[in-house]
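User: Could you write out the 3D structure of this protein bound to zinc ion? I've included everything you need below.
Assistant: Certainly. Input first, then the structure.
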Amino acid sequence: MGWRESLDTLGFPDGWWFGRQPDYSDKHPNSGHHPYARPLHMGWSKDARGHWVSSSEDANTWEVICEECGDRDGPVETQSDKVKARRGPYSSKELAEDAATRDFNGGL
Ligand SMILES: [Zn+2]
């Protein structure tokens, strides 16, 4: 369970962590990026507060999310070219995790 999920469980309001100093103490010292692979999210819409939410996932297709690359979540069409290139989609979790590792180690 990641720290953000843990916080969700505790009921912290969305957005409270913005402006918080990141803690990279357990991360690669040369990378401030925290990319991760996940099943491709689909069916995007915005909730009442303007946050992207997806209604479905494709269990056979993977994407890589990295907020430090400027990925603000939401459909890939709304992302920068750099984010699009990293997002994928990838045909397997292994390929997606390879791409995430490359980003973590210094980017594309
Ligand atoms: Zn990144």
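Residues 6 and 12 are 9 Å apart (CA to CA).
User: Perfect, thank you.
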